[in-house]
Amino acid sequence: MPNDIDLLVRTSRAVGGVHRSVGEIAVPVEVVERDLPMSEVEVLFRSPHLPCLAVLDPADGRVGMVSRTRFTDAQTGRLGYGRAVLARRPVGEVADWTPLVVDEGTGVVESATRAMERSGETRYDDVLVRSGTWGAVATSDLVQALVAALSERSLHDPLTGLPGRELALHTAREWARLLAGSGRRLLLVQADVAGFAAVNARFGGAAGDALLRLLAGRLVAGTPEGALVGRTGSDEFLAVVLLPEAAPAGAEEQVAAVLDAVARAVAPQAPDEPVVRLAAVVSAPGAADPERLVQEAQRRMLARKAAPAG
């Protein structure tokens, strides 16, 4: 049975990725002036791909919207017009002149929240997106984008942007399954910032946060392409590396090359930078128990911490 992390990962994948701003998911929308007769609007709505119309008032620059639902209500007389009378009316008399309008750079979370705060018959109308050209986004698409954004936030560390502990462990489990029937191995590298509490005490929390972001970037740069680096604790990181097959004679050198690259990436580059301790563990070819690998990496790290400095 899938756990919560499995479901969050699957949800994020199912909605097609994470979008930061509403402009990334908006589609171009037809723009008409308010004096256009409804008979011509009817021709436009014959296209099943037309979600709505943006309606501009040249006199005062206002923008309104005719959704497909509002157009249908007008055609059936629910807005107070008969069909024959409606054909001669300008679209401006049917348009909603208080639609939700957001700029293209507005975040998905804010846009979705504002859309769902609407009440009544306009709650599920499309949202107009203001940019160089007008666009629109369906509320259902906004909700999907919101789900993806919240899933990503729950799986990632907000400070560094790296995967959090649960996603890093989930990845280790998933990659362990990929080893079966192959000569590949799973390498875990745990990193711990020595004396991190002293950094916070001496320079303040903002400096500590800046250091963690700096080290996160260095770790990512120092690991092989395709590896995952996560922040698993206050001052702890975990790199999960799926090693390619290697001949027995070169297996140790393969691991050593990865560790050397990581060590060089996180080596202090200024006198006041703390040392980053590393502890690594690698599986046998073709099989791995990720839980035991994590426990062993933690055991080795505790031994490193307990060892005399020098």
Give the tags.
4-stranded mixed beta sheet; single chain; 11 helices; 11 strands; 310 residues; alpha+beta; CBS-domain; elongated; Alpha-Beta Plaits; 17% strand
State the gist of this model:
The chain is α+β, with helices and mostly antiparallel strands. It is built from 11 helices and 11 strands.
What strand order characterises the main sheet? 1-7-6-5
Strand content: 15-25%
User: Which percent bin holds the helix content?
Assistant: 40-55%
Distance between the termini: 48 Å
Q: What this model shows, in words?
A:
The chain is built from 11 helices and 11 strands. The protein starts with a helix and ends with a helix. The protein is 42% helix and 17% strand. The strands form 3 sheets. The protein has a 4-stranded mixed sheet with strand order 1-7-6-5. Strands 9-10-8-11 form a 4-stranded antiparallel sheet, with helices on both faces. It has a 3-stranded mixed sheet with strand order 2-3-4. It has 2 domains: 4-151, CBS-domain (Roll); 165-306, Reverse transcriptase/Diguanylate cyclase domain (Alpha-Beta Plaits, 2-Layer Sandwich). It is α+β, with helices and mostly antiparallel strands. The longest helix has 19 residues, at 248-266.
